[in-house]
Design a protein that fits this description.
The chain has eight helices and two strands. With 132 residues, the protein is mainly alpha-helical.
């Protein structure tokens, strides 16, 4: 019986370690978000994974817009951030409102160069001003 409990606990510890390792491997840069959104077959699960990994929800929506994902598809997504109180007694989720979602989408449509990876939009321009 003790061996069974020991093996069960060891298995749970390994599974927990693997899930943490997978979460740490998610690229939350603009390039990573773009690649994740354009190669997924389950957009909601991908968005959930990106948010859980620390990606900015507004950036996710803006990158989706710049990537050409239709507004109606983005509106159907639930972009929520879950949080827990320090003592882990209170769990909460805050989701983007439709108005905020549309504003973030418009930012991606209006300035796609900011939200597309360098390979999709050409080379990134430096913001330095050169003077002679």
């Amino acid at each position: 019986m003790k061996k069974l409990i020991k093996n069960t606990l060891l298995g749970l510890a390994l599974a927990g370690g693997l899930s943490v390792a997978c979460a740490e491997g998610v690229d939350t840069s603009v390039d990573g978000i773009f690649n994740a959104l354009t190669t997924t077959s389950n957009l909601q699960a991908t968005v959930d994974n990106l948010v859980a990994s620390g990606a900015n929800p507004q950036s996710i929506v803006s990158v989706a817009a710049a990537a050409g994902i239709p507004l109606d598809t983005v509106k159907d997504l639930q972009v929520c951030v879950n949080s827990a109180a320090p003592d882990a007694t209170v769990l909460s989720a805050s989701c983007m409102r439709q108005r905020s979602l549309v504003t973030a989408y418009a930012a991606g449509v209006n300035d796609p160069m900011k939200f597309l990876p360098a390979t999709a939009a050409g080379k990134r321009q430096s913001k330095e001003v050169k003077t002679n």
